[in-house]
């Protein structure tokens, strides 16, 4: 028995969502590696051409699913009082908004990533790097981080490491409400916050010294000439 009516009855946006959801259901049933697009088409009682109008291949469905997580991330600032939170709190809420969107199929997410890491899937790995970079940029924007220049570059590198470390840990975290992942993220953000504060303190120390340097030099040369 098919899960939906023919595509002519439904809008294309709804059909696209059904394709994603059906692929996820099949993946949960048999493992992601065993999901074939012709099975998705058969389950939905549509043709492969209908799927191709929306997705270039199976990995495009994976990307569309991760885009749902991005959408959940981008909705995080709509929460009341978002601007009143500290940057650290905003980062924690943002990253967990992204993870929560994937939570119903967490095991499947791990299988998808293993699939991408097969040696013959180099093109998928390149896409994965671009996806990570894009998601990190959205996390920075959602968290309202203002850094520019070299500070922004350091911040992006640190945030990428924190995001990937938390994601990898979360994939195998069976604690209630992913509490261990939350604790890990909080520790990583606290450490990054301390390092950022230390760098800012070093900048404050260097700035007066650099301004005092030339004036001290001039005063010294004046004393020498007076002698």
Quick take:
With 227 residues, this protein is an all-alpha fold. It has 2 domains: 1-55, Arc Repressor Mutant, subunit A; 57-204, Tetracycline Repressor, domain 2, CATH 1.10.357. The protein is 74% helix and 0% strand.
Describe the structure.
The protein has 227 residues and is mostly helical. It has two domains: 1-55, Orthogonal Bundle (Arc Repressor Mutant, subunit A); 57-204, Tetracycline Repressor, domain 2. Helix content is 74%, strand content 0%. The protein is built from nine helices and no strands. The protein has helices spanning 12-30, 37-44, 48-52, 58-75, 87-102, 106-116, 122-142, 149-170, 179-226. The longest helix is centred in the last third of the chain and has 48 residues, at 179-226. The chain is elongated and about 55 Å long. It starts with 11 loop residues before the first helix and ends with a helix. Residues 1-7 and 215-227 have low confidence and may be disordered.
Within CATH, the superfamily of the largest domain carries the name: Tetracycline Repressor, domain 2
Residue-averaged pLDDT: 83
Question: How would you sum up the global shape?
Answer: elongated
Unreliable stretches covering 5 or more consecutive residues: 1-7, 215-227
Query: Within the CATH hierarchy, at the fold level, what is the topology of the largest domain?
Result: Tetracycline Repressor, domain 2
Q: What is the number of helical segments per DSSP (H or I, 4+ residues)?
A: 9
Strand content: under 5%
Going by CATH, the architecture of the largest domain would be: Orthogonal Bundle
Task: Spell out the helices and strands N to C.
Answer: HHHHHHHHH
Helix content: over 70%
- End-to-end distance: 103 Å
How many separate domains? Answer: 2
Number of strands: 0
Largest sheet: none
Query: What is the radius of gyration computed over CA atoms, rounded to a whole number of angstroms?
Result: 25 Å
CATH class of the largest domain: Mainly Alpha
Structural class based on helices, strands and sheet pairing? mainly alpha
